[in-house]
Design goal:
There is one protein chain. β12 and β13 form a beta hairpin. The protein has three helices and 25 strands. The chain has an eight-stranded antiparallel sheet, with no helix packed on it. The longest helix has 8 residues. The two termini are 21 Å apart. 5% of the residues lie in helices and 46% in strands. The chain is mainly beta. The chain has one domain: Beta-galactosidase, Chain A, domain 5, CATH 2.70.98.
């Protein structure tokens, strides 16, 4: 294991610690106050500076994420609200969305509220407010590497309706500032099931500063709202209480990807705070472009809502009607069918 700039064997590290938890690992606790009461938190520390929190009650999503004690994620004013307070109608999702590093939008709907012959769908679907089951959190030695793994199942079901199952693994390795997310969504019903999926990654201060730049994969670019200028996609700015959100669609050019089947976006801050000093930091978001061919960019440098959303997706966010117009049909899984997604976050400090 590479830790503290040196290679170690498992036994060398165990000889230097009464419990490996003093270096990193997994801990669990439960929140007890206000609307967060009852929410479990699984904390992962890699020992290399990265710490992040997984919330099983919130779709096994990732809340606060820090590097060397400084946040890379944006946290919503709502906090990690327990899903018992979720308001599924309309835009009620906004009252209980946690923000954090990742909010999963799906499984049968993502984007603006919609109504069709199958029913009503609130903003961004139910996944982020659906508690996971069969949740496990395991530290496992593999030779001289210690793997930190959280897994579980999130299901969205309805009598006489869709039956979708998300099987999720979140993996980190001691000594590395990297998060790997491996998802499989299955249709375990007996009818075709619409499946709209969007990974709502939320980045915030101090990763986002006036000197921060954003590098996005080559793509066909257009704005959600006609007339919105697109020259701001690669830069950031100071908070502005009067700014209006901007949403951009980056339709990936598969032949232009640096690595076949894998897209990558980068956020670079030349002066990220690390232990009392500032050093350059690059955060890379990589994902499977074959199953997530669209990157939605939510640019909101407001006051309080000071957040950059990078959202790999299989659909635009205008609601089911807009997706139908854009794609010609809704993305769907056939009975017994499944689809896999892989995403990685890699944090690289310089100096």
């Amino acid at each position: 294991m590479l830790l503290y700039g040196k290679q170690w064997t498992r036994r060398e590290l165990e000889a230097r610690a009464g419990n490996i938890g003093q270096l990193g690992g997994i801990r669990r606790w439960r929140l007890v106050e206000g609307k967060e009461a009852g929410v479990d938190v699984i904390q992962i520390r890699t020992g290399a500076g990265l710490e992040f929190e997984v919330t099983p009650e919130k779709g096994l999503d990732i809340s606060l994420a820090e590097l060397f004690g400084a946040s890379v994620s944006w946290q919503s004013p709502s906090g990690n609200v327990h899903p018992m307070h979720y308001e599924p109608e309309g835009v009620g999702w906004l009252r209980t969305a946690s923000g954090g590093l990742l909010m999963t939008c799906g499984l049968s709907h993502a984007g603006s509220p919609s109504d069709d012959e199958t029913g009503s769908y609130g903003l961004h679907g139910r996944a982020h407010h659906t508690p996971a089951r069969q949740v496990t959190a395991v530290e496992q030695w593999k030779g001289d590497e210690l793997e930190l793994r959280v897994s579980g199942i999130v299901e969205e079901t309805s009598i006489a309706g869709s039956k979708l199952r998300l099987v999720r693994e979140i993996i980190s390795v001691m000594g590395q500032n990297r998060i790997t997310i491996r998802d499989r969504v299955e249709n375990f019903g007996f009818r075709p099931a619409p499946h709209l999926m969007l990974y709502h990654f939320n980045f915030g201060f101090p990763l986002l500063g006036e000197q921060t730049t954003v590098t996005l994969p080559q793509a066909l670019l257009d704005a959600r709202d006609p007339g919105t200028p697109t020259d701001s996609c690669g830069r950031w700015q100071a908070p502005d209480a009067n700014i209006v959100e901007q949403v951009f669609y980056h339709r990936l050019l598969m032949e232009k990807l640096a690595e076949p089947g894998v897209a990558e976006a980068r956020i670079h801050n030349p002066c990220f705070p690390m232990g009392g000093v500032s050093r350059p930091l690059t955060v890379k978001l990589r994902w499977s472009a074959d199953t997530l061919p669209l990157l939605v960019q939510w640019r909101m440098p407001g006051a309080g809502e000071h957040v950059l959303g990078l959202e790999p997706s299989n659909c635009i966010v205008g609601g089911r009607e807009a997706v139908m117009r854009d794609n010609g049909s809704l993305p769907a899984l056939q009975p017994g069918g499944s689809i896999e997604y892989k995403l990685e976050l890699i944090m690289e400090a310089e100096g």
